[in-house]
Amino acid sequence: MILGIDVGGTSVKFGLVTPEGEIQNATRFMTADWVNGIGFVESMKLEIGNFLKQYPIVKGVGIGWPGLVSLDRTKVILLPNIPSVVNVPIVEILRSEFPHIHFKIENDAKCAALGEYYFGENKRMQTFILLALGTGVGSGVMMNGKLFIGGRGNGTEVGHMLTTRGKSLENQVGINHLIAYTHEQLALDVAKKSSLHTIAELSPKVIADHAAQGDALALAVWADIGTIIGESLVNIVRVMDLNNILLGGGISGAFDYFVPNLKKAMLEHLPTYYTDDMYIGKATLENDAGLLGAAGLIMEAI
Known about the structure:
It is built from eleven helices and twelve strands. It is an alpha/beta fold. The protein has two domains: about 1-115 and about 290-300, 2-Layer Sandwich (Nucleotidyltransferase, domain 5); about 125-285, 2-Layer Sandwich (Nucleotidyltransferase, domain 5). Strands 3-2-1-4-7 form a five-stranded mixed sheet, with helices on both faces. The chain is globular, with a radius of gyration of 20 Å. This is Glucokinase. Pfam families: ROK. One of its GO terms (molecular function) is glucokinase activity. Belongs to the ROK (NagC/XylR) family. Keywords: Transferase.
């Protein structure tokens, strides 16, 4: 049995994970409570201890972090949401406290890729990139059955790549920017033909629902998003030499509306070496991806 921990800016999820990917006894703690209480690291150590006492069958703990980690995977080196953790030797502290337990840490998007590899519907796909399209854009790459981390440990930060429009991918297709872009298009719709004018609070799901109803403006927004992602993927595919692509995160629910233009951009700019057997599909673990991916860290080690 593995204890998976998914650290987020809002909450920290704990859950026991079986080798088959079943999550048991999941619980959640508020990040702010830890930061403002006895401290994040001390709180984490305390709750891990509580879990290990309650479930002595646990042999390893995997922890996913929403930031950059050191090459030797012993500490977090960049974490804007929880700065008190930066450069703290978290793995050394935990191993010292629990010497019989195996600990591993990793970036959360890379964890999500591991989760898909071990537990998703595309289980054991040897080489692929996972794009987590949410408030930000995270990514993880499995390369020939191994997690790819780059030369210094934090490769594939594709959300920060510049697009052809001079902005980062994250600042073009992240949820906040998607909504802002939709508002911009609504402001240009002086005839108020779009049904989105009647919506007080936009979200990816709302925009997707209106696209499903044939709203031309909503469809155009998703088409543009697809083009931006597709053009970025052209660069990624060329650099990484892969052509299996999984799409997850908060905007992946609009898969059917942005993927056609995504594919079109890729087909226009890539030779058949990449496109003949190219696969573009949905990531399948949804909200469990981080927790299962953290458990995947231990699966990879045993």
